Amino acid sequence: MTFDYDLFVIGGGSGGVRAGRLAAEGGARVALAEEFRMGGTCVIRGCVPKKLMVFASSYGPAARQARDYGWDYEGGTFRWERFRPMLHAELARLEGIYQRNLARAGADIFHARATLEDAHTVALSSGETFTAKHILVATGGAPFVPETTEGHELAITSNEVFDLETFPERILIVGGGYIASEFACIFNGLGTHTAQWYRGAQILRGFDDEVRGHLAELIRERGVDLHVGLEVERMERRDGRIWVKGSDGREDVFDQVLFATGRKPNTAGLGLEEAGVKLGRWGEIVVDEYSQTSVPSIYAVGDVTDRINLTPVAIREAVAFHETVFRGNPTKPDHENVPSAVFTQPEYGAVGLSEEEAREREPIDVYVAAFRPMQRSFIGRPDRVLFKLVVSQKTQKVLGCHIVADGAGEMIQLAAVAVKMGATKADFDATVAVHPTMAEEIVLMKTPVRSG
Ligand code: NDP
After folding, report:
1. What does the mean pLDDT of the chain come to?
2. For 29-83, how does the pLDDT look when each residue is reduced to its tens digit (9 = 90+)?
3. Domain containing residue 198: CATH number
4. Which of 278, 296, 326 is the last residue of a domain?
């Protein structure tokens, strides 16, 4: 049987573009369809614009600290109308790079919505239909907003936050995950009065319990009005603002309410189930270790499979897919010891197991250094950084490393190399400290604070 293409990719985000580019560079006939903008969530509505806003939000507090350090600083105001066009120009530039790299590799790009007709056929919203030997679904995810909340349609999500016409003076962030916690810190740093309401007992469920508590304290200390055990019961538009009633009876008024209550795989209306592709309960595409779906010619990578929803993981899955399908080298993407950072202020970087996860598996030693770093203690700030190692008693391997500090995202990348290599506590101890730094504590912790 002959096909129009060797590979048809649905979705122009990090995973889809990488797989398409590698296959095209290897000589395969490749097409890719994207209905929105090339670059996907990470470039257009996620990691990249978020990080640029993190940078923007860090200058206000830094300038105030400069005054404490002897600078003549009189304060200032963040100008969204000045920053927003710069932000969008940068996103357009990156989008162009994605598009050009893929086209240069020889892939055909269709700016259209694609749906599956069968195991080898893709139909485009432009009316064209193509066949392909392999189809890769890399359609990502989209914000989920609980429709049970009365007035939920008044809220924005992370999709809209980068396009706001006017900058809010007061914002409510709903949720306690990565996105909620990051945006709470961003808006707080930019000078907005920021409240964060989370339904559970502590933000960042799934991470190390001790670190979650420590970080929540610091987020509050830096100015976010963070409440746990609190949900939105009802929202109404009143005098151009949003009136919100909380589950504890409180009432407040905000200019914007941002729901960051999770993301859902983008699988609706793609013809997946009709083509025989099995979906999970959350709508995710079920794949095996090689990212193959229940239909042998159809593969899926990235957030649409709801494994570990991080850009670099989607890219690794795409590379493994390419090795497996186009280079005859069956390769499983490695989902062990994936480091990540929550870009709160301060940041939280983590790799490996939390104390709770590790203790379920084996006896452990826990090392913690929590202290006021020199840069902050000099100006009388009370906040403490935290460095934590979770170590196997039996093998002495470092099973988990957790850092809460400014720059923890950068630090954890390097610590992750050691953890991934299977470094022991003795390997950390044998490394000479870089003095004076905060991170030197990671090689100086002598006595476990808890064992067992
Ligand atoms: P998360 O799954 O991290 O958090 C979702 C939050 O919403 C949780 O606090 C959850 O509460 C809450 N929630 C869920 N449903 C409801 C509801 N019905 N009512 C009230 N609250 C609710 O999702 P995010 O959207 O923050 O991020 C999605 C993913 O994107 C992350 O898991 C991560 O993989 C990725 N990401 C990574 C970033 C990074 O690497 N820096 C940055 C941003 C996103 P509960 O805990 O009680 O379930």
Report:
1. 97
2. 999 999 999 999 999 999 999 999 999 999 999 999 999 999 998 878 999 999 9
3. 3.50.50.60
4. 326
Q: Is the CB of 341 under 6 A from ligand 1?
A: yes
* Ligand 1 centroid, distance to 268 Cα (angstroms): 20
Q: Report CA(340)–ligand 1 centroid distance (Å).
A: 14
Helix (H/G/I), strand (E/B), else coil: 186? helix
In the prediction, which pLDDT does 1 show?
Answer: 80
Residue where one domain finishes, among candidates 224, 239, 261: 261
> Tokens 């993407």 — which residue?
333
The yes-or-no answer on residue 111 being catalytic is no
Among 51, 145, 158, 179, residue to substitute to test ligand 1 (most atoms within 8 Å of Cβ):
179
Please tell me whether residues 133 and 157 are part of one structural domain: no
Same domain assignment for residues 91 and 112: yes
Of all protein residues, whose CA lies closest to atom 18 belonging to ligand 1?
146
To the nearest 10°, the Cα dihedral for 294, 296, 298, 299? 80
Q: What is the 3-state secondary structure (H, E, C) of 130-182?
A: EEEEEEEECCCEEECCCCCCECHHHCECCCCHHHCCCCCCEEEEECCCHHHHH
Is the same domain home to 227 and 361? no
Give the model's pLDDT for residue 35. Answer: 97
334 assigned to some structural domain: no
**245 Cα–ligand 1 center, Å:** 22
Residue 393's domain comprises 340-451
**449 pLDDT higher than 80:** yes
Mutational test site, ligand 1, from 144, 219, 261, 315, max ligand atoms within 8 Å of CB = 261
Residue closest via CA to ligand 1's atom 25 equals: 262
Residues 382 and 292 in one domain: no
Residue 75 Cα distances to 52, 82, 283, 377, 430, angstroms: 21, 17, 48, 22, 45
138 and 29 belong to one structural domain? yes
115 part of a folded domain: yes
Question: How many CB atoms are located within 10 Å of the residue 79 CB?
Answer: 9
Tens-digit pLDDT profile for residues 398-420:
999 999 999 999 999 999 999 99
- Cα 38 to ligand 1 centre (Å): 24
Ligand 1 pocket test target in 178, 203, 234, 410 with most atoms within 8 Å of CB: 178
| 279 confidence band (pLDDT: 50, 70, 90) | very high
Residues 168-191: tens digit of each pLDDT: 999 999 999 999 999 999 999 999
**Is 45's C-beta closer than 6 angstroms to any atom of ligand 1?**
no
Nearest alpha carbon, ligand 1 atom 24: 262
Q: What is the pTM of this model?
A: 0.97
- 162 and 199 inside one domain: yes
Give yes or no: residues 239 and 354 share one domain: no
Q: Phi, psi (5° rounding) for residue 401?
A: -135, 130
Domain tally for the chain?
3
